[in-house]
Amino acid sequence: MDRQSGDISNSKGFADKVLRVLSIFFRSLRPRRSSKASRPGLSFLLGLAGTAIVLAAHFASLDRRAELHALDLRLQYAASRAEPENILHVDIDDASLNELGRWPWPRETLAGIVEVLGECGAKTIVLDIILPEPQKVRYVDAAGEVYGYSDSALIHQAPPVPVFDDAILTRTIRQTPNVFLPMYIDSVAAVGSPQSVIDSRVAALLKADPQVSFSAVIAALHANAVAEVNETELAARAYLRRRAVLAVERFGMPPGQVGDLSLRGGEIIPPLVPFARVMDGCGYVTFRPDEDGIVRRIPLLARGGELIYPQFALTVAGNSLARRGGGKVNISTDASTVTLSCPDGTTRVIPVDREGRMLINWSRGTWLDTAGRPGEIHISAAAVAAVWQQRQRLASNRNLMRLTQLTLAQGRCDELEKLFAEADELYHKRIAAERGRYIAMLYDPANIPPRPTDLIAAEARIEGRIETAAAAFRKELDEFYLAQRPSDPQAGKQYDKLAALRDRLDCIRRANAKIKRDIADYKTRLRKEIDGKICIIGSTSTGAADFVPTPLWTRTPGVVVHSNIIRAILTDDFLRVAPAALDILVILVAGALVALLASRWPVFPAAVAAILLAGGYAAFNAMVVFAIWKVWLVVAAPLAAMLASFLVVTAYRQFTEERA
Asked: Comparing C-alpha atoms, which of 587, 593, 594 is closest to residue 646?
């Protein structure tokens, strides 16, 4: 009983101590009377003075770097994580370079990738590669060593075959729907240089006659002493570029359509004129980072000559939205927005600043995952090019089969030799016609000959005759020349040579059958990833120059910047900058609130309250204002105002009230 009484008395004593401590704490929270009634008010006013200093620094943009860093943190930890389901990156990555060769690739390779994407159901094909200059004609071997066989048995060797890469890519772009190419706007073009002088003169000649030939341009330049003989190359570059500028003007807008924005501009560097004439859309890809070198915003419109051009990703996204309604997108602006209007009523109101710059709402799913690897919306260009490579193998095998058949027919089948000679003659005529057409496409637009469809049809007919004659000769070969191996050593060697050539034909036929099956399998697998997607072809290899720092990644491929803009526009997921008046109000309220607490409460509880207020504001700003409302509201300046108010008031009270 005594022990129980002792426990009860000890409990009461502990409770009394707790009550006394709580009583002292809550009494400390009540404002103490000062010896001078004006001191709390003076403390509050001094706190407001500290806030005013922070506000002045904000007006002078001294907190700009801190605000940008705070924005980056919110983008990293509070922005969207959703991966765009309708966007697919076709990366020119390290694996692609290892498989297809060093960059730049022949444009026939790009044409092959574009062709396969179109066949696999790509809704839009975006080629994020600047192609302003013509590519030189290449020459390739007609056939080479295949499957370990030696070509020493062939008595005929085909001459190198010319490849017109630009003509191949032009034809592929024309035949594939919804292919978009970029252009570049040079804001620092040299004025008064020989190139600019010739460029302006060529532009005047083309404005007077858009179909004027390059030879006529050269004659006019020489007649006016504008160009010397050694400046013909400059004139050719100017001629091709100015013709391409005229071709892309169909994608421009009159300045009056965007009169509310202050836009930058410069000289247009468009795609090569054959591409510019057949592509379905075009936009500029010029980036301009913030003052700390990080790309957070992108100008959606820019001036090029006398017209206004849209940014590349804006063009792609706008056309993708408009195609749902079966028409074209209309772009309009005011002082703070760029609006896309589609025929079916779909609109996108994009918030921009006075220079027409959109704040990019980044998504981590568009590039590297947490392990630093490209996300699921990325595939290697080598995977797509595998189909094209297999088709190249088929073409090489056909050439090798032709040479083998010709060697077998030598002295044994006059009909087959004659057909091969006719086919060669048609081939050389077609090559000459294609060469003339290619040169006219570049330098004589008024006299571009039609595609040699008659020669192509004639080649197809003679190929059929060759197949028939080759089948008949093969039967004769088996029944007569290879019926039985002769006992004579010399004749036996000839028999073995013919048998080896026949076996080569069989091997090629089996290989071709397998290649065709592989192509079908590849396309089936690719279609699952490509069908209905916006496919963006761009470089992501480690040695590429097209990398920029962004809030989420220190090295971001430029093509990923475009995909983030496309994603934001398609999903209507934009970031808005808070009005300047709201920023100022938040800074003042934050500083004033802490000044009020610090002027009336003791230091320790006031400090705890200020910390809770600062943390609560930062969390509310990031998780609600930014993540949910999609508004960029100031963070650094309000926190600085809280700190300044607290320090000023506390220092004043330390030297007056608290010391007394």
From this structure: 594
